[in-house]
Amino acid sequence: MLCLRNVEYEKNGRKILHGVNMTFREGMSYSILGPNGAGKSTIAKILIGELKPTAGEVLLDGRDITGLGVTERARLGISMAWQEPARYEGIRIREYLTLGGKLKAEEDEIREVLELVGLPSELYAGRMIDKTLSGGERKRIELASLLLLKPRYAILDEPDSGLDITAGELIEELLGRFKRTGTTVILITHHDKIAGKTDFAYFVCAGRLVKKGFSREVVEYYRKTCGRCLFVEGSP
Ligand code: ADP
Ligand code: MG
Question: What residues make up the domain containing 167?
Answer without folding.
Answer: 2-88+146-228
